[in-house]
Amino acid sequence: MRPSGRKIDEMRAISVETGITKHAEGSCFIKCGDTHVLCTASVEDRLPPWLRNSGLGWVTAEYGMLPRATGSRNRREAAAGKQSGRTQEIQRLIGRSLRAGVDRVALGERQITVDCDVIQADGGTRCASITGGWIALRLAVDALMKAGDIKENPLTDHVAAVSCGIYGGQPVLDLDYAEDSEAGTDANFVMTGAGGMIEIQGSAEGATFSRAEFDQLMDLAEKGVAELVAAQKAAIA
Q1: Where is 212: in which H helix or E strand?
Q2: 124 is in an annotated binding site
Q3: Which of its termini does the chain have fewer beta carbons within 10 Å around, N or C?
């Protein structure tokens, strides 16, 4: 039995609210169970120096967790004067994942920065950030198209992510914190709406896992991503 009482292939409840902030070109508030993330996408007519006059656009991301997003208060990274290695790794993952679904020529020479701020954490914050970040990105692109700044949609497919793991010897879908902290194996799967693989992060804690178990996790991930993509489609409809 999972701590939440969910079936092994059951996602946490997913909800998305769009148009959260006044100024961002795209924004949403995504809830995956008790993990809540505010995602905003900001369009800027500038590029990193190495991309100037290249004809290519750029999508990047920043990630952060509010001090009381977890059970005990964490010090703001700004107060510490530097980002943690975990934060840097996650925001690079988000950026890589979102760029995989973008035609950067069609985007044109502009940058879209997707900010993912974790309001409340209960496992899977990077996955929720990628899934919600894509919605914010899509809304920002829609605003560009409506304004006539770009002529065609540069987003080639949906991008979403979900975690899977082996908990209590059983492969399960969409780990919450109680499971993630005790899982023998945990993995994050980033995929396109068409089922293409973007990135897989997986590791064993203690015991190894087999190819057969990995295949089970993969099957669960495909089911979970399909549900997340359906939620994305409903949010932008």
Answers
A1: helix 211-236
A2: yes
A3: C
Task: Dig out the tokens for 69 from the structure.
Answer: 């997003």
Residue 107 reports pLDDT greater than 80: yes
Number of domains in the chain: 1
Judge whether 226 lies within some domain: yes
CB 141 within 8 A of CB 26: yes
CB 111 within 8 A of CB 60: yes
For residue range 31-81, list pLDDT tens digits in order.
999 999 999 999 999 999 999 999 999 999 999 999 999 999 999 999 989
* Kind and range of the H or E run holding 221: helix 211-236
Quote the CA–CA distance of 12 and 20 in Å, as a whole number: 22
Q: Note the helical H segments in 33-172.
A: 77-80, 85-99, 104-107, 125-147
DSSP assigned state of 178: H
Residue 126 marked in a binding site:
yes
Is 86 annotated to bind a ligand? Reply is yes
Residue 114 resides in a domain:
yes
Domain of 33 in residue numbering reads as 14-236
- Domain assignment present for residue 9? The answer is no
Distance CA 166, CA 187 (A): 9
- CA–CA separation, 78 and 152 (whole Å): 38
- 145: domain CATH number is 3.30.230.70
Is 1 domain-assigned? no
